[in-house]
Amino acid sequence: MPKQYSPTESESRWYEFWETSGFFAASEEPGDTRQTYTLAIPPPNVTGSLHMGHACRTTFEDVLCRHKRMQGYNTLWVPGIDHAGIATQVVVERQLKQEGLTRYDLGREKFIERVWQWKEQSGERILQQLRKMGASCDWPRTKFTMDPDMVRAVREAFVRLYEEGLIYRDTRLVNWDVESQTVLSDLEVEQEENVEGVMFDFAYPLADAGGEVVVSTTRPETMLGDTAVAIHPDDARYRHLHGKYVRHPFVGRLIPVILDAELVDPEFGTGVVKVTPAHDPSDFATGKRHGLEEINIFNLDGTMNENSGSFQGLDRFDARKAVEIELGNLGLARGSNKHMMTLPRSHRSGTIVEPMISTQWFVKMKPLAAPAIQAVEDGTIQILPPEWSKTYFHWLRNIQDWCISRQLWWGHPIPAWYCEDCEHVTVSREDATACGGCGGTSIRQDDDVLDTWFSSGLWPFSTLGWPEKTVALERFYPTQDMETGYDILFFWVARMIMMGLHFMGEVPFTRVLLAGLVTDERGEKMSKVKGNVVDPLDVIYGATNEQLVAKAEKAGAKKSGIKYLKSTYPDGFAAYGADALRMTLLSYSPQSRRIALSIKRIEGYRNFANKLWNASRYALMRLGGSSTKATQQCPQPKALANRWVLSRLYQALDVAATGLDAYRLDEASGALYHFVWDEFCDWYLELSKPALDSGDTALIEETEATLVHVLETVLRALHPMMPHITEEIWQRVPKWDEAPKSIMISRFPTGLVDAKLDRAAERDFEVVQAFVGSVRTIRAEHDVPRSQPMRIHWHTNDEDKHRVLDAERRTIEALGRCELCFEADPAKLDDPNAHFKNAAVFVNPGIRAAVPDVIDTDKERDRLQRNLKKVEKELGVLEKKLANPSFVERAPEAVVDKSRRDSLELREKRERLEAALNSL
RNA sequence: GGGCGGGUAGCUCAGCGGUAGAGCGCUGGCUUUACACGCCGGAUGUCGCAGGUUCGACCCCUGUCCCGCCCA
Length: 920
Prior knowledge:
- The strands form ten sheets. The chain has a four-stranded antiparallel sheet with strand order 6-5-14-16. The chain has a four-stranded mixed sheet with strand order 10-11-9-12, with helices on one face.
- Helices cover about 45% and strands about 15% of the residues.
- It has about 900 residues and is an alpha/beta fold.
- It contains 32 helices and 29 strands.
- It binds one RNA strand of 72 nucleotides through helix 10, helix 19, helix 21, helix 25 and helix 30.
């Protein structure tokens, strides 16, 4: 075994072994009665390649699946990818643009062909990248949201909802993305807050008399679509306007003054509001209340249409300026001032969304939401971390109908056909050939496609074969865990719950595990423009700074982004490996909304992998000449060190089990990390050296057995988190006959079976640790070279401690690099410098000791005083507490007792330290 | 306007009723045959601010100021 573990080659070798061996496959065998564990992957979009968010999802999900699989569950992790309607269409259109083409140049059919080509390429790449992360998906079951069986599921769902009256077509005000030229759902619109805008005031002249009314707007161009001005019915200032009209200065229209208490806040601005029913949500509602005309003034691309008079053809923002100027020319402008406002922007294209009246397909949400709320309320579905339930409820209780049609080309076509001879709309599972109303054959399919989340909403059951009654659906639905980012709680999770309950009559999963968003080390969102995107593959395989910079430049990063990249990662990334990346991602608390990924942290876990590697190297080397094997039976050793490590293993496995079950993967991985490094390596391996060299056959045997057992067990425990390196090592560990072919199909360890809690051993060993620690401190603080032996004279009145120090003399000597521990006459320790030459002194609980021939008086005084100060501070707090009668009366007995004991101990320590100081 | 997070060591974060922890960084010493991707020491915090509850608060409550996100 080489001194350094190199993940690159090892990871791909083992991955291939697992995949070709069929270890990822879930069983549909009729006789298989194992409990199932199912998790559907949040399907990555086919918009490019794997990013750190996917790496994070994959890691968490893989840990859950590998853990369950090792626990004996029939585990199914369903992989797949999403066609991601608008997002993918935008990507391909951008490519076309570089060739100087638009989708219209290609035409719908050719364009879709082109997107399919892209899908093949991008989808395949992403699936390969998931494998690089170690994902144990059941690959032959991979689904794409536009596969033929998914199409069938989507059609079935659409038609059923339509037949149930839950899908309908309606004309209403929608969010229009003028760039992508499609409608957007409310969720796809982002509100950009605190934008500095201009509030422009202008006057409408009264129609039949002199005078005017002044209105304010941040969007002057919309006045071309005004069909009313509104005042508050109780506003005394404008009583004279009741029943009057104003005249539109550009289009000549007569515009009524209406009274509306809901729309108008008399305190705000002039107290008069212009009303544009076709381009503003509250004006639209007002229009409905008053039966106002809705005049659309925009074309679909955001230019002004034929209803805007002389402004026709102008872009909406040019029209805004033109309208202002013209109003000025007419003497109707009444000034302007700065105004902070909120702008609606398209989630995808970033352009300012224009409210427009349009006919679209909607899903009626209230009836679907009710059972989805219920399922979380009654605990059928558990959301973790639990705080998210509130957000979930709030959204579902205030849910609006979902606009599901999109004016895109890439997606599931809406299965609706319009008849040219009658009004009937034919909605059908099969492609319609004739009108369902009049039987005529002049029918035309709806041009639109479905919102991409419509198909995603069916994911947990469509991937298992729905609407067919498959074995998989029967066996694996409902799934157990849904692990995903909190950002798609509404987009996806809530909709899956609604759809699952509606179509399957059962929740789609029983736990929702929400994770934070991966950001760069500063906590900023990763973006190509910022140049702060960390590609998981670069982390796994390594990349030089030049490569990182080149990649960022190609992706269109700004100069500041490149600069950041150069200064933050001057040396690029080493090939840290997938296991190190996985451990890093796992180490962040799931409660945190931000995972500020730090390369230094990845490096730390790479070092951990190396530590594990070398610990194993040591263990295997030591076992080389012996026939001792791992047996999956916990040894029953007698020696303290062996008992201690098994007990610590118990504790680590216990914390790991709790963490894995409660979705605290940070705690689970942390417990194993610290056990391996701080206890197994730093103490136990060191302890094993004198034991194995002791020549005592019994001791050697039980130490070998314990060593190999702990190693083999901790590898199994770590396997879900670090699958590759644990396999690499595990394969080399001498094991029982008939051991499984792979660690991934071995049994997940538990404290009760694979370790042994031994509180006495832990307590005793603490004595050793404290003693050794003190010895080491003295050596370090007195600059005693390693070559110089240190003799320790100790004394204790405590029988247990006496026994431990006696029995563990050898280990203490080895670990403390002190030679010769002596039991001392207590009288000598009362005044150490009278009896020992140049002695340093230390005090452990119940034990005191002198170390002759090391002293540098100044340093020793310094050290003792520092210790004394600390002791006095602690003692001060404790004594104050104990002097407080209400503490003694009201605090729990155990707490008071502990304080008493601590204070006694500290007092003794203080005494000893003072004596030592005086004796200097 | 409503809601949700967060403000703890230089940095990134964990802890959440019994006298503050990790990783990285800093610092002193180690060519210790598992590992320098290492080992052994050390330093570092009025736990955002102000009140309150409690025998006791970083932890609970109230208010307040910042920062981020979501919804309207």
